[in-house]
Design goal:
By secondary structure, the protein is of the alpha/beta class. The protein contains seven helices and seven strands; from the N terminus they run βαββαβαβααβααβ. Strands 1, 2, 3, 4, 5, 6 and 7 form a seven-stranded mixed sheet that branches. The longest helix is centred in the C-terminal third of the chain and has 17 residues, at 110-126.
Length: 164
Amino acid sequence: MTYKILDISKYQPNVDYAKTAKAVDGVILRIGLTYWGKQEMGKDETFEKHYAGFKAQNCPVGVYYYSAADSVAMAEKEAEYCLSLMKGKQFELPVYYDVENSQRQGSLSKALLTQIVDTFCSKVEKAGCYVGFYASTSWLVNKMDTAALGKKYTLWKADYRTAY
């Protein structure tokens, strides 16, 4: 079965929620991110607006957190921060951990990046959330143990080679 799920962040600041909700099966909103330079964490500036807009249309919502973690300790901080941003909200779709930051994560070993993903996902899962991880096909093949992570968490794969 194929689902139409839309990825929404500050890069889509003006959304017609009623029209969009009728055209999709759900949305995954960027809730926050870690800026790779100083590794400061921040909330996506449009998250609250998009969350309220899609919820008003009874559209299923999930979230993703864009990571720049280059250590297990930073992944734990990102998980805690993501959970704090989720307080008081209800999600019908998973919480995804987006790992694709080449500046901070590109040179990490496969074992370390796998551990970083597992750390974030397990912490968020222990808080009662359905979790997953997100990356491009290249990163999933070359940069982490996708098979091991896939046994525990759902996968959102960005495959830019496919035309739809």
